[in-house]
Structures are given as C-alpha cells and as structure tokens.
Amino acid sequence: MVADSRLRVVFFGTPAFAVPTLRALIESRHQVVMLVSQPDRPKGRGHQVAPTPTKEVALQHGIPVLQPTKLRDQAFLDDISALRTDLGVVAAYGRILPDMLIRIPRFGMINVHASLLPKYRGAAPIHRAVINGDRETGVTIMRIVPELDAGPMLAAVTTPIAGDATSVDIERDLADAGGRLLADVVDRLASGSVPEVAQDDAQATYAPKLEKIESPIDWRLPAQRIHDRVRGLQPWPMASTAIEGIRCLIHRTSVADDPCDSGPGTVISLEGDAIVVAAGDRFAVNILQLQPEGKRVMSAREFLSGRRIPHGTVLGPP
C-alpha cells in the first residue's frame, strides 16, 4: 500500500459494541464512505422502531447508511462495488458475510472479534468467557474468511475479567479496546503491511449464542459456577429462579465465604443485604440484587421488606 494513504472504508456494524470502532475510524485520517447496519427494529415497551446505535452515529457525521435484508441481493452488492472501497471493517454486524461480499474491497475485510482467538469463535464470546469463569479475555483483529472466525490474526490485546464483572461490563471495556486496536491496525495497513498469523485450528473453541433455556439457575451447581452464570447471562436472558412462586431475575450475586450443610437451593439466611442460598458444593450464593417479574431491579433488603420467607425455603425453577 502507498505510505500515509487515506483508505476508503466500508463499515459493517450494528449494536453499541461497534460504536467505539466506528468513532475511532471517523476520527482517523481514513474515510468511512458507508455504514452497513442491520435493519432498524422495535425497541422498548412501546415497540417504537428505533435506529441502530451505529446508524445514529453515522447520520450525525453525514455518513450514508445501507440496511439490507439480504446480503446476496445483487442491487446491494452493486452499491458496495460502486463505492470503490479499499477496506471493509466489521464489528458485531450480526450476520455472516458471503464470500462475494468479502472480496469487494480492494484489500479485503477485517473484523473486531471479542475474544483471544482461536478461543471462543462464534456469536457470544464475551458471555461464554464470563460463564466459564475465565480470568482474562481480549480483542483480536482478524482477516475475514468464509469460515466462521477462522481467518489469520493481525493484532490482539488482553483484558482481565474481574471476579464481579458482568458481560455488560466486559463488553464495554472490549468495545473501547477494540476501537483503539482497530484504528492502529488500519493505520499500519495503510502504511505498508501487517504480519498475519494463522490461527491454530486445533485450539479453537466455539461460543454459541445464548438461549432462553439457559436462564433458570440449577442450584446443584457449585456456588462459583452459579455466580459466573449470573454474571455471564446479562443483559439477556438473565439468570432466574423462583422465590415462593415469584419468578425473579438475578442481577448481582457473590459467593459466601463459609461452607454450609443445607441442600442445594435452600435459603439459609435472610439477614442483612443478602438472600443466602445453598449451592451444590457445600458453599452458598449471596443474592444481592434481583428483579421480581414485572417489577424494577431492587436490593435483597428491599425485596424482603414486608415479606416473610421461612428459613429452609427451597428455591426452584421459575
């Protein structure tokens, strides 16, 4: 590539995670000539159609937007071809790009992936890392190839996962880190070449999308695993349990320090700021924040105010 060249970039991204990367490109010396986002969808209780987060940013900066329903549609492919782009950048677009689209930009396409590849290829890398109790994760910039998240890697950065951090917290951190890393990679691509390191497919793991069926807490699991699932299933589908027939989404927990002898799911303490529930490994989970169905998020103390829940109550599936 020509030294200090200004690249024409087409950006593919939809949710809030993609916004820091889009902003980093807008603030760079390169030109974002088009945003491709998924279609606008209804949001909130009123189900009003709202623009995607990336679309809002693009419109603020006068960047044209395409929101195709079919990526193989010839009219859409012709529109992208007509842009005469140098590079495609993808950050959480939400759909697999066909090979005919990947080949259009002069220098191909690169992706901001929220894991340390080859670990956690797939749709939910952040959530799966938190659910699995990982102590660190990161962002990898990789070249897009037809195989899912299997392309060679151009750069990576590592981020620690705190013991009480949720998927929402980690996603916010990785979005910012990904934006900075991507901007650096694009600058280096424009000025020359960036070494590309092939992934070790033998070390690859898969991070499938979250399913609603994963929400109910299995109190037979060890306390730490329950705590990690509560952190990792946010903001959807959320970990849930039934407390005396009331379905509750569990927002915040911790692992109790002392062992207990009660059976899994048994409420062993209702004092102070926690509902303490026995898990399957002789330790307990402190429920600190929860949301009864149809109600607001509240502390355990607020939830218990005016409620008489007998000690020994066993929590069940919602």
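the 2nd protein, sequnce then structure:
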Amino acid sequence: MKILVIAAHSDDEVLGMGGTIPKLEDVDILILSGGLTSRLNFIENSYNLQEAAMKAGKLLNVNNLYIEKLPDQRFDNLDFLDLVQLIEAYIKKIKPDIIYTHDYLDLNLDHRLTYQAVLTACRPMPNACVNEIYTFEIPSSSEWNFGQVFIPNTFVNITDTIKYKLEALQYYDSEMRKFPHPRSYEGIENLAKQRGSQVGCEYAEAFKLIRRIVT
C-alpha cells in the first residue's frame, strides 16, 4: 500500500502521526508550507523548518519528502483551484492508495483548507487510485475549536514507537511550547496516553476515517 501524508505545515506530520509513520511501509510526505513559520520571532531568527522536516522524515523512515512553500497561515489568500491542482499533481505522481491529512474541524484555517483541497483532489472518479482517506488531530488546533469535537474512529497503538515521535519533535524544538501548552512534549505524551486508554493500550494515535472504498 502506497501512503501519502499531506500536511499544511512543517511539524504537523509529526504532531499528527509521528508514532504511526514508523509502523507503516512505503510512506511519502507532502508539506505544503515548509518554509519559515509565520511567528514573528522565528522569522527574525530565520529558522529553517525544511532542515527539521528532512531530519524528522529520515528518523521516521519516510521514503520521499516533498516540500512546497505556500504562505504560512495564508492559504485563504490562494486561489483554491491552485491548491487543489497542486495536490492533484502529487497524487498523479505518487499514486497513493491511502491519504492521511488534516481534519475539517481544526481551528487552523490552513488545516481546514488543506482538508477541503485533498477531498476535492480525491474525487472518487473511475480509476482513481486513492481508496482510503483519514484525518489526524493536531494539538493546539483540533481541540481548540470549541464546540467542534474531533471524534476518532480509528486508533493505532504506538506504544513501541512513541519514542520516535518525541525524538522527531526535538528537531522542531523551536516550534514546541512549555507545559501545560498542548504542543509541549508533556502535552503530546499525555494525549497519546489518553488515546491509548480509550482502546486499551499504553499509547495511541487517533484518526478519523473519512472514506474507504473496498475493492
């Protein structure tokens, strides 16, 4: 099975499924906004997230990492068709069977537009390659959209791989925060424990199955 992870920003791929990726085979990652973060202090420091993404991808045993340079936190300024066609081009090139991406309920607008563009690019046309689409949760986005709850229906036991997720996040250390912020190392581990307790394991990552076509 060929798998494509489509993330809006560098670090989303690790936050969302950094424990699941090492358990999968034949994984490619597409990061749509892989340049400098929009946070002012990091722009001033010229922090290069591309290098962090490459190091994290190597640690997680990713086959291919593709990085675009769409404007961070400004996807709404783009022509939506251009975003769809960009994703379509990668789908045509990679031919994934399964796609993981952001959830439509996230607070972050870039995440929501990424989801909408992925779903549009994955219209179930005859001979389409994508048979399964899942969304992942991003701490400090999925749970902050109060009134809109991320309700997963698929879980992956990452008890034996959470160490890789936490190690990969160290490459993005400048993007991390201090506890009790959900995007802290403690917050990430606590969420994995919570998801694990829901399904009877120590640590887990949660996903929402959006569409599955059984052939």
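Strands lie at 3-9, 27-33, 64-67, 98-102, 132-136, 154-157, 204-212. The CA atoms of residues 6 and 121 lie 12 Å apart.
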